[in-house]
Amino acid sequence: MSSVPVPTIAHHWLLPKPPSQMHLLDAVGQLGVLLLVGVTGMELKFDLVKRRGATAMRVSLAGLILPLVLGVGTGLLLPASLLPDDTDPTVFALFLGMAARR
Asked: How many Cβ atoms are within 10 Å of 92's Cβ, its own excluded?
């Protein structure tokens, strides 16, 4: 085995040498995401979506609303000693709720 670590070899092989060309790597990544979404859309069975649409909608809404409510609730229940200085507790609670959704 060589004494050069594998991440160093992968870094030089995968990433462009000039930092100004990093946008090319981003473009290739975006193209990969676009192809993945396209293939997923081609494999979608619309009859299944029609049959299970209401269930999917409820699960989706619960996945959005539940973390938001729990995050805001946690932010409102935090003691003032844990909040950053000069921070409005309501704004902090809303921020925490949005962060919990991600």
From this structure: 17
Contacts of 16 (CB under 8 A, 6+ apart): 22, 24, 25
Tokens of 9: 């070899």
Phi/psi-derived region of residue 86, left when phi > 0, alpha when psi is between -120 and 50, beta in every other case = left
Rounded Cα gap, residues 23 and 100, in angstroms? 30
| C-alpha 2, offset from chain centre | 37
pLDDT tens digit sequence for 16-69: 677 777 888 888 899 999 999 999 888 888 888 889 989 989 999 999 999 999
Helix (H, G, I), strand (E, B) or coil at 49: helix
Q: What is the pTM of this model?
A: 0.54
Task: Say if residues 75 and 95 touch (Cβ distance below 8 Å).
Answer: yes
Would you say 25 and 15 are in contact if contact means Cβ atoms under 8 Å apart?
A: yes
pLDDT band at 3 (very low <50, low <70, confident <90, very high): low
